[in-house]
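Operator note (shift B, R.M.): manual run for L-2,4-diaminobutyric acid acetyltransferase requested after the automated queue skipped it. Running by hand, logging everything below so the morning shift can see what happened. Input copied straight from the record, untouched. If output looks odd, do not overwrite the archive copy; leave it for review.
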Amino acid sequence: MSREAVERKIIQSELHNIVLADLTIGVFFATVDRMPSGDASDAGPKGPATQVRETTDPSGDLSFGSPTPADGSELWNLAREAGNLDVNSRYAYLLWCRDFADTSVVARGPRGDIAGFITGYRRPDAPDVYFVWQVAVAPGHRRRGLARHMLDRAVHRMCSNGVRFVETTVTPDNKASMRLFESFAEANGADLTRDVLFSERELGAGHEPEVLHRIGPIEGPARVLDGVLPD
Ligand SMILES: CC(C)(COP(=O)(O)OP(=O)(O)OC[C@H]1O[C@@H](n2cnc3c(N)ncnc32)[C@H](O)[C@@H]1OP(=O)(O)O)[C@@H](O)C(=O)NCCC(=O)NCCS
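Run finished. Output pasted below as returned.
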């Protein structure tokens, strides 16, 4: 090969490399365009580990997810408005929303207002038991199956993590709550037993007894209302 031919070959090869490098940079920037911004602040997009999965109910006007500490004050307000609940401090709801978010459910209206919530936890010394601490539905959303729907979602999620029993306490005067848990037990073909857990002796004079409702065993994932996808 002549010297000229060798030089031509080298130039062609370098041009080829430059084109390849351009293409690679193009692909890199195209990929960067599709990547999330990586903003780890509260205002930024949530990563997979912290993501609150939001789902929508069939009627489309409420969405369901886990609470965040930003919801704590609203949960506290709803607990105060709901009636029939032992209202804890605002701080307790904030902490709950931070530490027990995965075992709790909130229903949000179209403007982000909270229509209802369920707070619950897996009992530390009985991990197959999901204890429902409080359920509340805003007065304007009652008698439409919202509490049942939230309970179904919460238990469905817990059953896929090994839970087989649901416990809660209800005061004997709370017909709505009693019916909620009866209806849940019936739908899941599970037994429901009742026994006083705490009486006036522990709760103080004038407090109705807290009757433990224990439901189970629940075989397989709990029934999900109206074909709604589980979390
Ligand atoms: C109890 C409460 C959460 C129920 O919420 P809800 O969304 O209205 O309940 P649902 O529509 O899902 O109804 C669930 C079942 O209870 C029944 N129910 C609801 N309210 C009722 C009432 N006031 N009286 C009798 N039954 C009632 C429903 O008919 C349904 O039974 P079904 O499946 O046989 O039809 C709501 O009334 C509330 O927030 N109350 C104040 C707070 C409270 O008492 N919480 C529970 C103690 S932790």
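Quick read of the result: The beta strands are 55-56, 63-65, 105-108, 114-123, 126-137, 165-170, 191-198, 210-216. The first strand starts at residue 55 and ends at 56.
Leaving this for review. - R.M.
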